[in-house]
């Protein structure tokens, strides 16, 4: 769970998740939405992948990313259980 909270601790990564909430995107499409370098976006995507917050799938020469809602559900359940 530490990987998840580390991943969520960065605004850029949270913004990437919000983009992926709307639709799947390639790494290039994600990078086009930010004013930081493509290698930096790749680093953020790698952290999100290691935390299982996003999936990646290579299609031809592009890598497509999608949000993993299952892990989000697990986080919410954990937080809910803290309250009860």
TrEMBL record:
An MF annotation (GO) of this entry: DNA-binding transcription factor activity
Pfam family, one: HTH_5
PROSITE patterns assigned to the protein according to its UniProt record, in alphabetical order: HTH_ARSR_2 (PS50987)
Keywords per UniProt: DNA-binding, Transcription, Transcription regulation
Residue span(s) of domain HTH arsR-type: 1-84
Protein name: Autorepressor SdpR family transcription factor
Species this protein is from: Poritiphilus flavus
């Amino acid at each position: 769970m530490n990987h998840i909270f580390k991943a969520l601790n960065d605004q850029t990564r949270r913004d990437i998740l919000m983009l992926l909430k709307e639709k799947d995107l390639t790494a290039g499409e994600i990078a086009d939405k930010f004013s930081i370098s493509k290698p930096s976006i790749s680093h953020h995507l790698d952290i999100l992948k290691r935390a299982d917050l996003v999936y990646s799938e290579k299609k031809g020469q592009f890598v497509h990313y999608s949000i993993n809602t299952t892990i989000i559900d697990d986080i919410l359940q954990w937080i809910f259980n803290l309250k009860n």
